Every structure is written in structure tokens, then in C-alpha cells.
């Protein structure tokens, strides 16, 4: 990230670092969740930059900072740079997992439920004994979660009931007798990160075109799904 002018990453101070203490440069900035008074365009750009960073983490770096805590970010108003803090929850993502999510998000962007379900199966979302109606409910919930991507236009995170709809769908699934199947940990951590960005976007009232941001990373029509992801 050293050459990306939109972000600041604290620098390690090796002369002060020990095997048990990591010393880094002190970076100033404002708490990112307190920026509701910024101009709308600036708030939009801030959230766009964080979503683009997430896409790069998953599909390019294969290394994702999975903790969505707002305290992990600061904002330098003068330079409009985002300070990235605390990489303790960073997880490596295999090429297979990354490509599985590329397939999933590509399918969601094109509202292709069949291909989305196939990608979810490969990532490990479904147990072997899942009933068709349960599988359809899970696919529908993921399609709902991808609404900001599949709408194909600017999504107003500050004016949506998406969170409550996802909560209701999740609660309905959790009540299914004998159904619940925990997806792989990599998926759960990634969903936590995405959910945190959704919450921050809602807090700041951002309006973002996610399909435009994801377009450089999506699969072309002729590309195939990767091998099934191991649980």
C-alpha cells in the first residue's frame, strides 16, 4: 500500500520493536465514524476507497484485515487520507477461496441465482443434507446481502432497511430444525468485514456504486468456476 496516496499505514520502528512489542509511527486523524458532517461527495469517496481496498485484499493481496471495528480507521481531513490501524485480525485467503468469492459476487452482480448457488456450494455454505427449500432461503439471503452490488447503480446506504431484512432472514433460518450449517471460518470472517463496511457506509450516509467498483475484478463470461473449496 506504500504507493497508494489514499491510505496511510503506520511504519514499523525497528529500533523500538522487540519480540513482544511492535512499535509503530504515531498517526493522527479523526475517528472515521464521526464524519457525518463532511460533504456528501467526500463521504462517498471515503467509502468507495474502503470497498476498493477490500476487493484488492480479497482478489489481489489474498490478505484481508477482517476486523471491521471503526477504531481501526482514522481520517486525515486535510489530505483526505484514510489511516489503517491494527492488523491483528489479518487472515490469508487462498486463491481458491478468493476465486470462489469472485464467482459469487460476479453472479450476484448479474442476479444469476443458479451460478451464485454453485459458487456458494464450492465455498462450503451448504451441508450435505440441506433441503432444497433451505438452500433456496440461504441463496435468497445472500442475494439480499448483495443488493448494493446487484442494483447496478448508486446505492444509498443511509436510506435502506437492508440490515433489518438480513436480520429477519437470518433469524428465520436459525429457527429451522436440523438445518444450521456453519460455513468455513474464512467465509465468516469475510462476511464480518463486509458487514462492518455496510454499517460504516450507513453511519456516514454514503452513496456508492459497488458494481462499478467491482467491475475490474469480476469474471468474464467465459471463465469457469474454480475447484470446490475444502471446508
Characteristic terms for this protein:
single chain; 231 residues; disordered C terminus
Describe the protein in words:
The protein has 231 residues and is α+β, with helices and mostly antiparallel strands. It has a domain at 94-217. It contains 8 helices and 8 strands, in the order ββαββββααααβααβα. The strands form 3 sheets. Strands 1-5-4-2 form a 4-stranded mixed sheet, with no helix packed on it. The chain has a two-stranded antiparallel sheet with strand order 3-6. β4 and β5 (81-84) form a beta hairpin. α1 packs antiparallel against α7. The longest helix has 22 residues, at 40-61. The two termini are 31 Å apart.
Compact summary:
This protein is α+β, with helices and mostly antiparallel strands and 231 residues long. The chain is built from 8 helices and 8 strands; from the N terminus they run E-E-H-E-E-E-E-H-H-H-H-E-H-H-E-H. The strands form 3 sheets. The chain has a 4-stranded mixed sheet with strand order 1-5-4-2, with no helix packed on it. A two-stranded antiparallel sheet has the order 3-6.
Amino acid at each position: 500500500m506504500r504507493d497508494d496516496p489514499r491510505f496511510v499505514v503506520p511504519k514499523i520502528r525497528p529500533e523500538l520493536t522487540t519480540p513482544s512489542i511492535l512499535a509503530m509511527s504515531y498517526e493522527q486523524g479523526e475517528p472515521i465514524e464521526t464524519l457525518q458532517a463532511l460533504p456528501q461527495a467526500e463521504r462517498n469517496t471515503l467509502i468507495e476507497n474502503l470497498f476498493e481496498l477490500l476487493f484488492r485484499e480479497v482478489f489481489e493481496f489474498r490478505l484481508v484485515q477482517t476486523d471491521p471495528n471503526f477504531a481501526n480507521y482514522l481520517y486525515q481531513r486535510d489530505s483526505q487520507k484514510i489511516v489503517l490501524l491494527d492488523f491483528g485480525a489479518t487472515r490469508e485467503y487462498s486463491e481458491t477461496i478468493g476465486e470462489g468469492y469472485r464467482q459469487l459476487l460476479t453472479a450476484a452482480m448479474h442476479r444469476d441465482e443458479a451460478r451464485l448457488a454453485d459458487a456458494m456450494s464450492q465455498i462450503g455454505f451448504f451441508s450435505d443434507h440441506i433441503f432444497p427449500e433451505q438452500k433456496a432461503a440461504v441463496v435468497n439471503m445472500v442475494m439480499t446481502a448483495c443488493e448494493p452490488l446487484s442494483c447496478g447503480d448508486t446505492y444509498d446506504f443511509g436510506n435502506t432497511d437492508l440490515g433489518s431484512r438480513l436480520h429477519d432472514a437470518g433469524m428465520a433460518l436459525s429457527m429451522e430444525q436440523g438445518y444450521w450449517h456453519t460455513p468455513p471460518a474464512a467465509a465468516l470472517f469475510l462476511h464480518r468485514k463486509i458487514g462492518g463496511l455496510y454499517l460504516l457506509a450507513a453511519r456516514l450516509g454514503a452513496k456508492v456504486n459497488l458494481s462499478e467498483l467491482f467491475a475490474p475484478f469480476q469474471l468474464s463470461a467465459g471463465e469457469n468456476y474454480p475447484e470446490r473449496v475444502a471446508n
